[in-house]
Amino acid sequence: MKLSVRVRGDWFAVPCKGTEKVTWLGEESLRRYYKSKSRTGHAQEKVYEVRKAKGAAILDPDDAIKDVLDENDFVTVVLDSDISSPVTGPAEPVYVEEKVAKTSVESATEYISLDGNSLSTDDLLRLGKGHYLIKVRLLILFTGVGPPLSPERTRMLLALRINVLAKGYSGISMETLKQYIAAFNANCLPWVPEKGTVGASGDLAPLSHLALGMMGEGKMWSPKSGWADAKYVLESNKLTPIKLGPKEGIALINGTQLITALGVEALERAEAIARQADIVAAFTLDVLKGTTRAFDSCIHDVRPHKGQKMVARRLRSLLHSDTNRSEIAESHRFCDRVQDAYTLRCCPQVHGIVNDTVAFVRTILSVEVNSATDNPMVFADTGEIISGGNFHGEYPAKVH
Q: What confidence tens digit (pLDDT) does each residue in 115-153 have?
């Protein structure tokens, strides 16, 4: 067994078998004390008594250690020269009764939130009397500014967060995940400011605001209530605020979901604009009485970029329609023009690279929306928790 022994204010760990006498414990502790002071022997000092540090119970020198002390007990060794004198007063601290009346501390059920800024003197007195339990509200990451995201964007953010947590590598409880799902299905959307993401280093601030609302703090929006206190919005939709368990605080705020959500929105718009640009190009060629020879498949087969071939095919389908024939095209079908203006002939090449870029961005974001971006990652199959850098947003940031 091992005991913690104090000699004149210095503490020593003293291992023993437990069969030794209390007298031996005092002598061995004194030896260790002098050894730590770079002196040998202790003929000038004698052990006066050995006491328990807690309660100051005096131990009988002839008792076996194991009969009066437990593993890791705290003990005080008092020396002859430590005994109180009328001149010097007590060298050892005065021991007080360990028992405290239970009525001096009340059993609290109400929580008070401490954030380093709002504690009042009355609150402190009540804390001392046991009127409150404490919960800490860390505001360091709730630093977004500006108007809130639109409901559509907040729903995208919340849906992406649910998708990531559902992969099972974040270490959150099923109950917390279900509460996120219930909030999404009820259209209860936390106030997430538009500005505040740290960019390629992740979305700590926006995801913190998302989690704040889910905890029943800050503001929240729903069709029933509009913008109101988050706790009220959750209650009005028969939902309860989440209570964070181990690992859940960091699990709910680590990731790239806002960067990715906005990237997906931009991607879909870019793809629609690219299609519209091809249609506008076809109309332009038609009204300018241009030729479609530059869009012939044999030209693009010898420079087979996917986007270029796709745009040429799309232009041919629009301009060679058997269903909706162009009267303008028919009017100059047999003209002897060699080629059209540069801007018309090169539409497949110019628009093509845009479509290839859109396709590349889609590949990146399709992987990102289905990726685990937490840290550390919890691998339940192997029982491992590994810290890494999946929270970094360089991939979605680069394609924005």
A: 677 788 788 888 887 788 876 655 556 677 888 899 999
- Give the alpha-carbon dihedral of 392, 397, 399, 400, to 10 degrees: 150
d(CA 213, CA 235): 12
C-alpha span between 360 and 399 (Å, rounded): 9
CB 375 within 8 A of CB 253: no
Burial (CB count <10 Å: 0-12, 13-18, 19+), residue 221? buried
Strand 193-195 and strand 145-148: pairing? antiparallel
Taking residue 188's Cβ as centre, other Cβ atoms within 10 Å add up to 23
Q: How confident is the model at residue 71 (pLDDT cuts 50, 70, 90)?
A: confident
Tens of pLDDT, residue by residue over 337-366, are: 667 788 888 999 999 999 999 999 999 999
* Helices (H), ranges, the chain: 22-36, 65-68, 121-128, 151-165, 174-185, 204-214, 230-236, 248-251, 257-287, 297-301, 306-319, 327-331, 342-345, 347-368, 394-398
Does pTM surpass 0.70? no
**Residue 214: pLDDT band by 50, 70, 90 thresholds?**
very high
Q: pLDDT at residue 228 above 60?
A: yes
Nearest CA among 160, 155, 183 for reference residue 260: 160
SS3 391: coil
Each residue of 361-383: b (16+ CB within 10 Å) or e?
A: bbebbeebbebbbbbbbbeeeee
Look at residue 160 in the predicted model and tell me its pLDDT: 93
Q: Quote the tokens at residue 90.
A: 């007590």
Residue 129 belongs to what H/E stretch?
none
CA dist., res. 5 & res. 88, Å (int) = 24
CA distances from 74 to 7, 48, 50, 343 (A): 11, 17, 11, 89
Note whether 317 and 326 are within 8 A (CB): no
CA of residue 36 relative to chain centroid, distance: 47
CB 56 within 8 A of CB 97: no
Element (H, E) at 77: strand 74-79
pLDDT of the residue at 96: 43
Closest by CA position to 216, among listed 107, 113, 132: 113
